[in-house]
Amino acid sequence: MKTILKITIFFICAIVSAQQEEFKKDSTKLRAIYTASLTNGKSYDWLNYLSNKIGARLAGSEGDKKAVIWGLSELNKLKLDSVWLQPVTVPHWVRGEKEEAYVQTQYGNFKAEICALGGSIATPAEGILAEVIEVQSLKEVEELGEKVKGKIVFYNRPMPADKINTFQAYGASGDQRYSGARIAGKFGAVGAIVRSLNLKMDNFPHTGAMSYGDNAENEKIPAAAISTNGAKMLSTLLEQKDKIQLKFFFKQSCQNLPQAISNNVIGEIKGSEYPNEIILVGGHLDSWDIGDGSHDDGAGIVQSMEVFRLYKELNIKPKRTLRVVLFANEENGLGGGKAYSALAEKNNENHIVALESDSGGFTPRGFGFTCNDANFKNIQDWKPLFEPYNIHLFVRGGGGSDIRLLKKENNVLLGLKPDSQRYFDYHHTSADKFDAVNKRELELGAATMTSIIYLFDKYGIK
Amino acid sequence: MKTILKITIFFICAIVSAQQEEFKKDSTKLRAIYTASLTNGKSYDWLNYLSNKIGARLAGSEGDKKAVIWGLSELNKLKLDSVWLQPVTVPHWVRGEKEEAYVQTQYGNFKAEICALGGSIATPAEGILAEVIEVQSLKEVEELGEKVKGKIVFYNRPMPADKINTFQAYGASGDQRYSGARIAGKFGAVGAIVRSLNLKMDNFPHTGAMSYGDNAENEKIPAAAISTNGAKMLSTLLEQKDKIQLKFFFKQSCQNLPQAISNNVIGEIKGSEYPNEIILVGGHLDSWDIGDGSHDDGAGIVQSMEVFRLYKELNIKPKRTLRVVLFANEENGLGGGKAYSALAEKNNENHIVALESDSGGFTPRGFGFTCNDANFKNIQDWKPLFEPYNIHLFVRGGGGSDIRLLKKENNVLLGLKPDSQRYFDYHHTSADKFDAVNKRELELGAATMTSIIYLFDKYGIK
CB neighbours of A407 closer than 8 A, spacing ≥ 6? Predict the structure, then answer.
């Protein structure tokens, strides 16, 4: 018995000691990754080019084409094992002339800042002038029914400020933007004006995707976002409706052109031991047409590229195949993600892990994981490695729009979780500019992504 | 035996259940605090006034006086049990005319952005033109000794970018600013130019306190900070010294006026059960004279005031005495903190807890605590209450310059730890403006401070 006990204790000690040794090695590697990203990183320079030399890059636009060529060229410079393009058919919506809007009253007209929602139709060339009915929800429009006929429906439910995670606040109000025009159009409204998805009071209208669903042609009505300050003004004036005769005017000339071709830009380093196990890292290369898409999702693009640059700089040879994907057309159609996953399915590729960064280039706080219990438990063991970098959030739920379709029963999807407080100050607006990104915050995000990819590559999944 | 066991189990269950009940109550209270701060907070409006209507408020300046009156008036509006001023004698340093500086070469002059360091003497009216010697440390100057005679010493050691906590990077390079002129002056240098304490490459020079120590009058030399871009330019030109004949010119007219009077602004709510146990919350009301001190430390001031407003809004009656202190003269002398602690000592006051917010109005990450083991262990038990708010850092070491002297063996000093990545983009510069503060980040900080004060008041210390 005594001998067996001794042997058991010996083995337990050996295992614990080996684990401690690996922890030490991993700690050292993570420190090297963070140091390289913070002192010699390229993510910020890349973002400077993408934002300031290329700028806005909505699917189908000239900016989109330039971004694809730039992405291809930069990935080539990294000397990955292979770099290629995957063509993607994408919508081609254009905004046209700058929108105009004002509140018309007997006391004069009050200008409002609006922007057409992505996918919306134009107003007639002379614009639309109509009475306004303010609502807080889609349901309220359904209840009003025919009463909205001939009117502009003004959706004014704010994002709830008490949510700590601003993406939850976004989710709580986002239906107005996506479906507001569809519902109002069904009941004969002539236009939909939607409060911008913004927690701040300012003059920036926030664009974003909307859909007419299966509405008939005559049920399709123009839809625009109004800035939060504009929404407040309009609502305040509407409160005085017994004293103020009020109509809203808006004019926009956006249109859907024939579909265009864009590309997913893809590069990979072949795995030395398990080349058929693919670990994907990506963001989306397209952006909305106002601003230059620095946070959404220029940050995610350059961070994904930086993962691979860091692998090269630090001479880390992955055991599994690492693939970077700069997805096309996330914003108005998800064409890139759909095309990528369809081809992966067809080629029977095995994506064991897919990481997306598409929540802005702010200080990283952790990751959200969509995976089974065994993997989640496994991942929790890595938390202490990240504590020196103030990375604490290892939570369930997460991934990204572009990688969603890659989900299999046993693989792991994850999304970088940066601090979310400032994201909706910039999201889908002309304020989403390079200067809104802090170099160190961006670099910490890239290092955090590289670190978790390093661990997934080293240890695999359950 | 069986009965004893049953009784023991019963009591353990009762204790656990009571603890769970308290945890639930505390969770509910914290949720109410965060919701009130995020949806009905006043911190941002206060900061708007302090930054945009009062602005810069260096000790002894008109802005400083206006800020004291404003603080007094706003605390009075909160209907605390008492509000008063404590006079403080403060230095009165003024910058004078805008500084001028350039690098003189045979190819022309290259302008540099500088600003005098706080407490520095002026240059002669015609400025100083001298050869430059670049160094990385105080020690290097001591080794150079007489070789610096007649020259301008240029301290150019950058803040180390690989530190995750930027305050550590600040600490690693700060000696150049504080003591650079003192050391260089001892060896006959004619001026000291110090690389700005900034992790970003930009054109903002960063002021801050310096000291001549016990240098004789003829060893006091003018000292200025140069922007990081300026430092890079100067250093690059110096590298070409075999081709480029280079001198540096700078001119500044700052001076120390006779001491002035400022005030600590103080308010309190008397404790209902333990009025002699004081829990202090504060920041410093003064700021440097460039920018408007929104992050340093307007944010800490309005957050401290918001703690008390939230107590009133939520109708929380503290058991212990809560005291808010808007400290005078932190930046160039610590006069407010010294005067406050001296009087507290004299009056034999018992400060069981003191919390300072003086690290910027960014997303709060947690607190640093200076306290004994028993208290630190106790505080750790509160961590789960803060997790829903993404507050994870409960670490040792912390407090603040103004409260440091209140340390006793068994009390607790703590400092709010906001995310530190952007702080040194603004610190002590003309870029430290209201627009650099995000409303929600500021409000989350105020709620986090209120929450921990609530727990300290409810449970006391060990």
Answer: A370, A399, A413
